[in-house]
Amino acid sequence: MRTVGVDLSAEPAGTAVATVEWAGGAAVVTGLVERAADDAVIEAVVGAEKSGIDCPFGWPLPFVEFVSGHRDGHVSGHPTLTGRDWRRELANRATDEVVRRETGLIPLSVAADRIGHAAFRCAWLLAQLSRRGLDVHRAGSGAVVEVYPAASLKVWGLPHRGYKGAVHRAARDELVDRLRRAAPWLDLGPYDAVCRGSDHALDAVVAALSARAAAKRLVSAPRGDQVEKARVEGWIAVPTHTLEHLR
C-alpha cells in the first residue's frame, strides 16, 4: 500500500509531499518533495491508495450562507446566537469544534485566518483530482482525507508543539528521535535529515502516517448530523489508535 502526505501551503515554498510504502509490517519513506508545485502534489496523490492533506477541505456552512446573503444584500443574524458566539459559528466548522473538544487543540479558522489562502489552493487541487477520476469526498471516505498533524502527534503521545521553524531545530530533532523509537518499523531512509531540517517535510510524513490510519479506518468519523456538514465543510481525521496499529 502507498500513502501520501501533503503539508499544504498557499505557495510551493511552504509545501512538502511525502510518499510512504507499506509492506510486510514495515513502512518506508520512498519520496519527499519540498517546495512542491501543483503538478507534484497531483501526481503523488494520483499514485497513492490514500492521501492525507493538511489543509481545510471546505468552509463552515453558516459562513457560506452568510457570504451568500451578503452578496445578495440581505445578511441576517442567527436566531439565537449573538456577538462572539455567533462569530464563532461563522468561523469554525463542525469538525473544528469536535477536534477542540476531543483533543484540546484549536484548528485555525479557514474563514477567519490566513490558512484560508492555503484552502483556496486546496479547493483547486481537489477539483483537479476529481477531474482525474479520484473520489475527493470531503469527509475523507475517498482517495483523500483531511488531516491535522498536531492532533495525530498528540494522540500518538509525541511532542506536537514547538518544533516548527529554524529556531526550533533541537525540538524537531527530539520529535524525529521519539517518532523513530515509537515506530521502529518506520524507515525514513535518506529523508531523516530532511525531516530534521524542515517542519514542512516532517509534517508531510506525519500526514502520510495519518492517511494510513484513515485507510485502516482507525480515525474519527462524522456521525449523525455531522455527516451532511462534513460533506460540505470537510472533516479532520484524527487517529483513534496508537502508531503500532498502523502496521
Account of the protein in words:
The chain has 247 residues and is an alpha/beta fold. It has one domain: Nucleotidyltransferase, domain 5 (2-Layer Sandwich). The chain is 44% helix and 13% strand. The protein has helices at 38-46, 61-72, 83-91, 94-103, 115-131, 149-155, 169-182, 192-197, 199-215, 226-233, and strands at residues 2-7, 16-23, 26-34, 50-54, 144-146, 186-187. A 6-stranded mixed sheet has the order 5-4-1-2-3-6. β2 and β3 (26-34) form a beta hairpin. The radius of gyration is 18 Å and the shape is globular. The model has no long low-confidence stretch (mean pLDDT 96). InterPro entries: DUF429 (IPR007362). This is DUF429 domain-containing protein. It comes from Jiangella rhizosphaerae. It holds the Pfam family DUF429.
What labels would you give this structure?
single chain; 247 residues; alpha/beta; Nucleotidyltransferase, domain 5; 6-stranded mixed sheet; 10 helices; globular; DUF429
Outline the fold blueprint.
Layout: E1 2-7, E2 16-23, E3 26-34, H1 38-46, E4 50-54, H2 61-72, H3 83-91, H4 94-103, H5 115-131, E5 144-146, H6 149-155, H7 169-182, E6 186-187, H8 192-197, H9 199-215, H10 226-233
Parallel strand pairs: 1-4, 3-6, 4-5
Antiparallel strand pairs: 1-2, 2-3
